[in-house]
Amino acid sequence: MKISPNNDNGCGWLNLLPKRPSTPAFKGTKRAKWLIIGAGYSGLSAALTLAENLPSEEIILVDANKAGEGASARNSGFLVASALNEGHLSDNGLDDYKEKINLYKKSIELAKHLIQKHNIECDWQESGKYHASKGLQHKEKLKNYIELLDGIGINSQLLEGNDLSDKLGTDFYKIAAKTESCILLQPAAFARGLVNALPENVTLYENSVVKKINSGSVHKITFADGEIIADNLIVAVNGFMPSMKIKNNRVFPLLLSASMTRPLTVDEQSMIGNVNQWGVVSASAMGATVRYTSDKRIMIRNTVEVSSSLAMKNSEMAKRRKIHQEGLIKRFPFIKNDIFEHSWSGVTCISANNANVYQEISNNHWVIGCYNGTGIGMSTLFGQEIALRALGKSSKTNKIIEDRPKASWLPPQPFLNWGIRMRLAKDRNSASSEN
Ligand SMILES: Cc1cc2nc3c(=O)[nH]c(=O)nc-3n(C[C@H](O)[C@H](O)[C@H](O)COP(=O)(O)OP(=O)(O)OC[C@H]3O[C@@H](n4cnc5c(N)ncnc54)[C@H](O)[C@@H]3O)c2cc1C
Residue 91: what are its φ and ψ, rounded to 5°? Predict the structure, then answer.
């Protein structure tokens, strides 16, 4: 294993939740029928599905850190029904887009179902999202997006000038497409709720880094202090697939960082017009994601990078925090001091053609992941569907996911990282004013 996940402890969403003690790390040797590696939304959803269908069997779930505290806690909390960067160029592409939208819809229904079933309090807000831009260069793109969404039954509208600033409490943005059917939620609370919902027949081992996988007629999984031999294996490690030598010529990880302020004071709230909570994603590929939360905090994520360690040292985080601070002041110039309470990083997984990973890569060895930045709902759906598939239960959704385009080929390292760095630098340059 090249890189082990190493979570920092600065995540605002997590720090706002009560602390949860870890379950023991895995030690010794064990024979298992079912093993899931990775306890983010994907692995948790797979575990819940297997456990429900096999009530008298033990399902083992392992994570290198604490369950639900990787990207699944560290994201920006947009549970989306559509994404701007998946636009189509042909009729063929349009069909593909519609199919993806249907999967997004299913994923939202599933998340809602799980939240209701397990009484998960995660600040579910059906408030939609703004794809916003500081400049007018994206106007055509936003208009096309609105037209596309209208054609498939998702309400959306173009907002400009005061109509937009009155909603956001900042005149930083000049134009936005406001789309319905996006839920804003507290991501760590959703993940924690799924952890708490694990039934007794799921055994969770935390702080248990998988060092090696040997797949054959059974699968031998090696840890620092032990080994599990499993009949059935689901790998759900998302951005850590390449470090496990899985799909390393198809997907790649990126390291993102974000900061979150203390709650705005009553005076500060009135300075932004006492607006309701909102979420903005940039119309530029590399622009900032910003949220004004229901407890009156501002979260900003405006860095993304290639990282060989997939983690940030304190000194690196301090530099990113300055970038977050600059982004905050551009939007809210009345904020003079550093009012961030939390800064953190998280790993996301991308493919060159926006495709996901959902595959039985060898006998009874399944892999899911690579949600390209829109993974809250999709990971939950993929987790459920891969578990059903592993159980031999066919479903329409399964077939749709399986038939979707596969992640395209990527060049080997170090050329891959050079290429991505160049592309990020180019995108960053064109989005510099949007951050
Ligand atoms: C900053 C940021 C913002 C984002 N914003 C959004 C958003 O607003 N909306 C959206 O839809 N998506 C967003 N995403 C993406 C979303 O968070 C992910 O797609 C989603 O969390 C994927 O869930 P997962 O369970 O597949 O992966 P993860 O949550 O990454 O879980 C994988 C788990 O595998 C474990 N693991 C890895 N390697 C090993 C190993 N060797 N041994 C044992 N365990 C291992 C990790 O510790 C981790 O817990 C964002 C991501 C980031 C980082």
Answer: -60, -40
